[in-house]
Amino acid sequence: MAISATQWGSPTSTRRALLIHGITMSSNSWEGLAQLLVAEGFFVVAPNLLAHAWRQGNTDYRISAFAEDLRPYFVMDTSYDVIIGHSFGGAVTVSLLPFLPKKRETTVILLDPGLEFTEEQNKMNLNLFLKETANIKPVDVHMVKNPAWSHRDCTLRTLGFSMCDRTAVEVFRQNNPWSFSDVLRKIPPHVKITVFVSDPKFGLGICNLQHIPCDVERLDVRALTGIGHWIQYECPDVIMDAIPTPRAKL
After folding, report:
1. Per-residue pLDDT reduced to its tens digit, 66-111
2. Is omega for the bond preceding 244 within 30 degrees of 0, making it cis?
3. Cα separation of 224 and 148, whole Å?
4. 68, 72, 97: which is closest to 191 by C-alpha?
5. What would the pLDDT profile of 154-169 be if each residue is shown by its tens digit?
6. Residue 243 and residue 238: Cα distance in Å, rounded?
């Protein structure tokens, strides 16, 4: 299988990060956060998911198929200090937990993850996908709608739409019911998870606090005030603060 990904930093770095993008996005969409990680000594890898960034889709669009497609990033017990998943990528990220080597602690950060959708929400997501991929908004529209975003981020948002295979709409048909939050109830002992939930008053409100289990060991849930769905664009510092320092992981 051909690997499709973007990399930042030096492969010889002692710290490694894996970034999983959301639907209609691409690996390049992580540029801003990736540069911050590199400045902290990370080698960063961001794969392009199936049917994204000109990757050909297939007939299997279950979340488990997206996770299985990423298995090559874990060959020979390859490990990561931190794995970050956004939105749809959050559901893919929690499906990667069985692949993580037990020899090393991994910090998993979920950015407004899409873990639970009702049947009605799934239909809305499907229709929104079809609408937005049929009529791709230009960069200037994203800039007006999202004043907190940089021009680069708005450009990458438009680019992600243009490179997405419309067969990816099957994601919403083949994952019904859409339910992946139970994984958070049984977090492996070598994994720590932080979930950032956006303010529903400022955007899509993909992740609902009611769907995140309470009082689970190694699970930290943080509700953000005044921050929308695109946390990596609007408030990357809060993500960086959630990553343990090398000393803290000793």
Report:
1. 999 999 999 988 999 999 999 999 999 999 999 999 989 999 999 9
2. no
3. 15
4. 97
5. 999 999 999 999 999 9
6. 9
Q: Distance between CA atoms of 128 and 185, rounded to whole angstroms? A: 30
In the prediction, which pLDDT does 212 show?
94
CA distance readout (Å), 237 to 31, 36, 82, 242, 245? 14, 9, 15, 9, 14
CB 234 within 8 A of CB 245: no
| Exposed / middle / buried, residue 111 (Cβ in 10 Å: 0-12, 13-18, 19+) | buried
Q: Is 220 helix (H, G, I), strand (E, B) or coil?
A: strand
CA nearest to 5, candidates 72, 57, 64: 72
- pTM of the predicted structure, to 2 decimals: 0.96
